[in-house]
Design brief:
4 domains, about 450 residues, 3-stranded antiparallel β-sheet, alpha+beta, single chain, about 15% strand
C-alpha cells in the first residue's frame, strides 16, 4: 500500500506544469521594477523642483529708498562699494547660507520729543487748556522742563562756535562750557518748557548695522518700522542730553524767541555724539516746535515781556533819534568823527580828513565860522589901516580926533537903532530927572530889517 501511494503522488507531481510559475514570477518582478523606476523619476523631479525653488528663493528685491547688506553666516559680504546692494533685483544664496538686511537710507524718520513739556492729560491735549494755575507748584516727577541761564549772567557765545571748531565730542568738555558761561557760579537759572522734533536718516548702513543694536525683523515686519521703534529710546536719550547742555547757555527770552540758532546748536551737538559712536545716522534737522515759560508764572512773564518790548521800543527810538541827529549834524561820517575826537590814538591827519568829509549842520556852522573869521580879520585890518592914517593927525590934534571918532560912533549907533528918543535937558528942575515910559513899536524892528535887506540886495 505504501508503495502504491508513493507511485500515485509521483504521478500527480509529474503531471503539474512548471512554465506558468516562472512567468508569474517574471511579471511581478517587472511590475516592481517599473514601480521603482517611476518612483525614482518622480523623486528626481521633486528634487529638481525643490532645488529650483530653493535657488529661486535667493532672489531679493531692494526698494528704491533702501540699501541692503548681505550676511553669510552673520558676516557682511563684499568689498568696497559691493558691500552695499542698491535698489533692484538681486540674487543671494538662500537662507540659512545668506541673509539680506534692507536698511531704509532715503527715508527721513521723524521723532517728536516732549520730554521737556509739562504734564498734560489726553483731555487737556485735545482742549488745548492746561490744568496749571498761577501759584501751583512745579511737579518734577510729572512735568518736564529745561534750565536756562539767568538774565544777570554774562552773555555767552553759542555752543555752535565750539562745535564748529572741534571734530570730536570730547572737545566740548566742562572747561569749554565754563568758558562759555563764566558767570554760572552762584547764578540763578530759569525754567522753560519746550517741545522738539528730530528728523534723521541712516546715511551709512554698514556703521548703523555694526554699531547699533536692532532686533531681528520677523516675518511680515518692515525694517523701517523696526528701526523707528528700536531707535526712538536711544535717540531720545541722546537728544535730551544735547538739549540740556545747549539750553543752559541761553536766557529764557532767547529760548522762547529763538527758532533758528538754538535748534542749530542742538543739532550740531547731537551729530557730534552720533559721529563719536559711529552710528551711521545723520541729523537732517532739529525743530523747536514750541517753547513757553511755566504757566505758574504767566502773569509775571507777560509783565516782563511787555516791559522788555517797551524797553526795546524806547531804545530803538533813541537809537533812531541819535542817528538822525548825528546825520543832520555832520552826515554819515558823524559817528566816525565822534569816535575819532574821543580817541587819543587817532592822528591829527585822520581827524582833519574826517572834518573835510562832514556835511549837514556842522558843515554850515563851519562855513559860517570861517566866513565870520575872515570878516573879523578883514575888519581888524581895515580898522588898523584907518587908525594908521589918523595917527599923524592925532599926534597934532588929539582932542579933535577923539571928538570926531566919538561923533562917528554915535552916528553909527543911532543909524543902527530901530527906535530913537531924544530928551532935551531942562533948566530949573533942581537936579530932578524926568522919566517917560514909552511902549516899543514891534513893527519898527521888522520894517528896519526889511529896509536893510533891501539895501543889501541893491
Amino acid at each position: 500500500m505504501a508503495e502504491e501511494e508513493k507511485e500515485i503522488n509521483k504521478d500527480m507531481h509529474s503531471h503539474i506544469p512548471e512554465k506558468p510559475v516562472a512567468d508569474e514570477l517574471d511579471a511581478a518582478g517587472k511590475s516592481l521594477s517599473e514601480a521603482l523606476r517611476l518612483s525614482f523619476i518622480i523623486l528626481k523631479v521633486i528634487m529638481i523642483v525643490l532645488v529650483i525653488a530653493f535657488l529661486a528663493s535667493g532672489f531679493k528685491t531692494v526698494g528704491s529708498d533702501e540699501q541692503a547688506l548681505v550676511l553669510r553666516f552673520g558676516k557682511i559680504q563684499g568689498i568696497g562699494e559691493e558691500r552695499l546692494l542698491g535698489p533692484g533685483l538681486h540674487w543671494i544664496w538662500p537662507y540659512p547660507i545668506d541673509e539680506i538686511v534692507k536698511i531704509p537710507v532715503e527715508r527721513a524718520i521723524h521723532l517728536p520729543v516732549d520730554s521737556f513739556w509739562y504734564h498734560e492729560s489726553a483731555q487737556e491735549r485735545i482742549s488745548g487748556q492746561t490744568r496749571i494755575r498761577p501759584g501751583d507748584p512745579l511737579k518734577p516727577l510729572e512735568d518736564g522742563y529745561c534750565l536756562t541761564r539767568g538774565e544777570q549772567q554774562v552773555s555767552a557765545a553759542s555752543i555752535s562756535e565750539i562745535v564748529e571748531e572741534s571734530t570730536e565730542l570730547s572737545q566740548v568738555d566742562d572747561s569749554s562750557r565754563q568758558q562759555l558761561d563764566p558767570g554760572n557760579e552762584g547764578s540763578d537759572y530759569n525754567i522753560v518748557h519746550t517741545k522738539w522734533q528730530l528728523t534723521y536718516k541712516i546715511d551709512n548702513p554698514e556703521r548703523f548695522f555694526k554699531n547699533l543694536q536692532v532686533r531681528d525683523v520677523k516675518p511680515g515686519e518692515n525694517y523701517y518700522d523696526v528701526v523707528t521703534k528700536e531707535m526712538s529710546p536711544f535717540l531720545t536719550s541722546l537728544f535730551e542730553d544735547a538739549v540740556v547742555q545747549t539750553m543752559v547757555n541761553y536766557t529764557i527770552d532767547q529760548a522762547i524767541s529763538s527758532r533758528d540758532r538754538i535748534p542749530r546748536d542742538v543739532a550740531a551737538f547731537l551729530q557730534n555724539k552720533l559721529d563719536a559712536i559711529e552710528s551711521g545716522i545723520r541729523v537732517i534737522s532739529v525743530q523747536l516746535t514750541n517753547s513757553v515759560y511755566p504757566p505758574q508764572v504767566k502773569a509775571a512773564f507777560e509783565a516782563s515781556t511787555l516791559a522788555s518790548q517797551q524797553r526795546d521800543k524806547v531804545r530803538s527810538k533813541a537809537q533812531e533819534d541819535a542817528y538822525n541827529i548825528l546825520s543832520r549834524a555832520a552826515g554819515p561820517v558823524a559817528r566816525k568823527l565822534y569816535d575819532a575826537l574821543h580817541n587819543e590814538n587817532t592822528s591829527e591827519e585822520e581827524k582833519e580828513y574826517l572834518w573835510t568829509q562832514i556835511s549837514g549842520t556842522a558843515k554850515e556852522k563851519l562855513s559860517d565860522a570861517r566866513i565870520y573869521a575872515t570878516k573879523v580879520v578883514k575888519d581888524a585890518e581895515a580898522s588898523a589901516d584907518y587908525l594908521k592914517r589918523l595917527l599923524p593927525e592925532y599926534r597934532q590934534r588929539p582932542e579933535l580926533v577923539v571928538q570926531r571918532l566919538y561923533l562917528d560912533a554915535i552916528e553909527k549907533v543911532i543909524n543902527n537903532a530901530v527906535e530913537k528918543f531924544f530928551v532935551q535937558s531942562t533948566q530949573g528942575t533942581k537936579g530932578k530927572e524926568i522919566r517917560v515910559l514909552i511902549n516899543k513899536d514891534q513893527l519898527l524892528k521888522s520894517k528896519k530889517i526889511a529896509e536893510q535887506a533891501a539895501q543889501q540886495g541893491q
